[in-house]
């Protein structure tokens, strides 16, 4: 592995916790060059909801490439884009009563966020964006300004302004009624806080530590935005595409955001793809006002359209996710009970789950021990105190059980090592 140390930047991170060279992957299994298998409870940080190399998606991609179909097209019209847009409209938007324009902002989730906040500022003529404690929205400067993590913000090298921070659900531990602080800031002319152009929120904060917002809290936030003429943005980059059960994570709350950011598992096969969705009346862009070279990656359109057809024409896949979520939740509760004297807890929604440790060192040791035993999990939260589970949504139940057994043993050993 010397070439990685010699040539690649020190900024690399995941490989430090998983020091091996991976070669092949299928469904929820990843194999390294020594032949060792790993159960994947990471899923490309949520970019592989349908697993590695799903055969239906892979065949669609290979067939498309074999016929010399166009790969790169900027924002020109292509047959692949037409098929994706048609399927997305007919399978996802229309059945949910969502009337959104679709913008291809660039290939990554942070591009979707940048487009969302840029549009919000253009529409409203206001600069301020409200964001939440422990949020994560991306690493480009606009998105990073909306992110809570001090280490990541520190890497910017410039002031990250034009935002105001609000407490996420449960952040104040019930010390004041929901949104009282936000309402006071908006309504008090002496608060020093101007009216925001938009509020951006994750329904479940993944990188922030699997913090789950209650449905009633999200509805109240949407109402507050509407009452105060503030655009309501949901960042569904990690929790969308079925991670919490429904296609959009906000569906359970019965809300309709003004703007939605999607990426990660949207392409279905780990290919770069992102969308910014917004109400038609917000579509005031001038042609070319927000552009980029890789806005329309046709292979991603192909696999995305195929994934919609394969998984989202009925509720079977979503119901399967809910069933697996129950299995995982029950086993994590059991692990918490087995280690009750050590202050563990668990939280999550759908197949986004976390084990919360009082000692961040124990979380790190758990991840390391899990890797040694053939399980890929990462840590999250402001102090990396949460072991985060994001298995592919179609992981077989038996493999979920095997991975959770490895996790249980890893927790037991890590607690001993760090006690």
Automatic annotation (TrEMBL):
Gene3D superfamilies hit by this protein: Aspartate Aminotransferase, domain 1, Type I PLP-dependent aspartate aminotransferase-like (Major domain)
GO terms in the biological process aspect are: ectoine biosynthetic process
Its EC number(s):
2.6.1.76
Keywords noted in UniProt:
Aminotransferase, Pyridoxal phosphate, Transferase
One of the entry's Gene Ontology molecular-function terms is: diaminobutyrate-pyruvate transaminase activity
Which branch of life, at top level? Bacteria
Could you say which cofactors this protein requires? pyridoxal 5'-phosphate
The leader peptide range reads: none
The pathway this protein participates in, as annotated, is: Amine and polyamine biosynthesis; ectoine biosynthesis; L-ectoine from L-aspartate 4-semialdehyde: step 1/3
| UniProt record similarity statement | Belongs to the class-III pyridoxal-phosphate-dependent aminotransferase family.
The name this protein carries in UniProt is Diaminobutyrate--2-oxoglutarate transaminase
Species of origin reads: Stackebrandtia endophytica
